[in-house]
Amino acid sequence: MTLKALPRFSDIKTRFGFLLIGETALQELKHAMSHNNLLMSGLIVAKHFQADMNVASSIAQIEDFIIRSGKHIASASTPQEKLNQFVDFFYKDLAFSGDERDFFASKYNLINQVIAFRTGIPVSMAMIFCQVGNAIGLKLSGVNFPGHFLVRCELDEDKTVFIDPLNGTRLNWQQLQQLYSSILGESAEESMPVETLDAVGVEETVIRLLHNLKSAYINEENYQDALATVDLLVQLCPDDPYERRDRGFLLHQLECPTVALADYEYFIKHCPKDPSTPLLKIQLKQLQQQSVILH
Fold first, then answer.
1. What is the 3-class SS of the chain, one letter each residue?
2. CA distance 257 to 285
3. Taking every pair of C-alpha atoms in the chain, what is the biggest distance, in angstroms?
4. C-alpha pair distances (Å), 172 with each of 12, 92, 167, 179
5. What residue ranges define each of the domains in the chain, with the CATH number in brackets?
6. Which residue has the higher pLDDT, 13 or 109?
7. Integer Cα distance of 111 and 176 in angstroms
8. Can you tell me the distance from the alpha carbon of 291 to that of 258, in angstroms, rounded to the nearest whole number?
9. How far apart are alpha carbons 239 and 229 in whole angstroms?
10. Are strands 97-98 and 119-120 parallel, antiparallel or unpaired?
11. CA separation (Å) from 228 to 94, 183, 214, 243?
12. Mean pLDDT for the stretch of residues 114-134
């Protein structure tokens, strides 16, 4: 079996030179996403918040996981056996797991730290699981399931398996429906829409990762990094008024009220019936008054 290994660091300058030249994080991220490279996209996001991060070390660790996983499943003769053996190796031998006690920590959204410490949240674990699994011949993709990112594996034309990336548990249709209802509560439809389980691409996965990272930084009251995260989201989703609202909130927290005005105004204009709009109108009026006084 031929393993689809990641580029070694000596090859990065040729194949991923955007990591080594003076481009912005946004340009680097868009470049990686356009090349459908999920893992590199995650590493670029992580690098944006950790200037001293060693990209080469993370790539080397993933290459090691690929080689060891490939050897572990070498005796498997069917896609189902390959999946079973890979899941066993990933969660037992490599010891990847989720941390239920500190689920919302920002470190679990930084791919290099998830690789190094083998602990993460659903979307970051799924990114690594899919990268390694696809390299050894499986057909894996992410599922942007509400509240809990999932992995789907195409075993053949007629059989698809859904996996919880936190622990490798297979989820049948009834369990997926229960998970859907438990997360959405009263707002959930009676029957889970089939498209809820569609595979998603690199950009959708990265946006999900950035949303989680934004929430984690806000929860940690790290508003500077939260602002950097939401600014990337605004650039990737320029027409999303909710990202503009969140950026306005963070600018407000960082005592940049004049700059926050435009984002609040944008949200109010595009979401006049949103429940948060009346409160934002009050805040907007206060900010406008402060702006007049400052000038």
1. CCCCCCCCHHHHHHHCHHHCCCCCHHHHHHHHHHCCCHHHHHHHHHHHHCCCCCHHHHHHHHHHHHHHHHHHCCCCCCHHHHHHHHHHHHHHHCCCEECHHHCCCHHHHCHHHHHHHCEECHHHHHHHHHHHHHHCCCCEEEECCCCCCEEEEEEECCEEEEECCCCCCEECHHHHHHHHHHHHHHHCCCCCCHHHHCEECHHHHHHHHHHHHHHHHHHCCCHHHHHHHHHHHHHHCCCCHHHHHHHHHHHHHCCCHHHHHHHHHHHHHHCCCCCCHHHHHHHHHHHHHHHHHHC
2. 11
3. 74
4. 40, 22, 15, 11
5. 9-200 (3.10.620), 213-294 (1.25.40.10)
6. 109
7. 26
8. 6
9. 16
10. parallel
11. 32, 28, 9, 12
12. 97
* 192-207 average pLDDT score: 95
Are 272 and 281 within 8 A, CB to CB? Answer: no
CB-based contacts of 191, cutoff 8 Å, min separation 6: 177
**Are 170 and 162 within 8 A, CB to CB?**
yes
Rg of the chain over all Cα atoms, to the nearest angstrom: 21
What separation, in Å, do the N-terminal and C-terminal C-alpha atoms of the chain show? 69
Q: From CA 27, how far away is CA 41, in angstroms rounded? A: 11
Give the span between the Cα atoms of 46 and 198, in whole angstroms.
Answer: 26
**What's the one-letter identity of residue 96?**
F
What span, in angstroms and rounded, lies between the C-alpha atoms of 34 and 118?
A: 27
Q: What is the pLDDT of residues 127-174, one digit of tens each?
A: 999 999 999 999 999 999 999 999 999 998 889 999 999 999 999 999
